[in-house]
Design brief:
- The chain is α/β, with parallel strands linked by helices.
- 26% of the residues lie in helices and 25% in strands.
- The protein is built from 6 helices and 10 strands; from the N terminus they run E-H-E-H-E-E-E-E-H-H-E-H-E-E-H-E.
- A 6-stranded parallel β-sheet has the order 5-2-1-6-7-8, sandwiched between helices. Strands 4-3-10-9 form a 4-stranded mixed β-sheet, with helices on one face.
Length: 185
């Protein structure tokens, strides 16, 4: 099968923020790959079910790739690499090593690194650890709330559908109506 995608995005981290970022960027012309640890890769489904509090429906997200070595980012021409890990992990020793490896992988390309992690000084950390120039490291935020579905029982508010929510991997609610409706292209 031929890959006709004209753009590629890699997302580092496949938790709630990473998966939601991938879902919102996925398009027939945009390939989305996740960079995760090998143990996480073995547990990732082929597709995620995402419950939207906005429209009360489940939206499926699949067709993404999975990388377990950040150096594999050098094998494709990514437009963006988006960091979607928590700030504490990113600023720890393993996070700094990860940033160094990402920098090694994308330094020779025009790829832009977007720091989507939340924390103080993370962009500066990403610049220092990756060795990328300042103009290729941006701060970015996703304009929605999201969480992983767990066995924790929380109070639900109408019109949330508890049965659909229970069948989902993640749930989301947009902070504004600027985003096109879920599922539209």
């Amino acid at each position: 099968m031929t890959d006709n995608r004209t753009h590629r995005v890699a997302i580092v981290g496949a938790g709630a923020m990473g998966v939601m970022t991938g879902y919102h960027l996925f398009h027939p012309s945009v390939g989305v790959d996740f960079v995760v640890r090998p143990a996480r890769s073995a547990k990732m489904p082929r597709a995620y079910s995402l419950y939207s509090y906005d429209d009360g429906a489940i939206h499926d997200f699949g067709g993404f790739g999975v990388l377990t070595d950040p150096l594999d980012l050098a094998k494709a021409d990514y437009d963006f690499v988006i960091l979607a890990m928590d700030g504490a992990s990113l600023s720890g020793d393993q996070g700094r090593i990860l940033l160094t490896r990402i920098g090694q992988a994308i330094r020779q390309r025009d790829t832009v690194l977007i720091v989507g992690s939340i924390g103080i000084g993370l962009r500066e950390l990403a610049i220092a650890a990756s060795g990328l120039p300042e103009d290729r490291v941006l701060s970015g935020r996703l304009g929605l709330l999201c969480h992983e579905i767990s066995d924790v029982a929380l109070p639900l508010h109408a019109p949330t559908d508890p049965a659909l929510l229970a069948r989902s991997d993640f749930a989301m609610r947009h902070l504004s109506d600027v985003c096109s409706p879920c599922g539209s292209t």
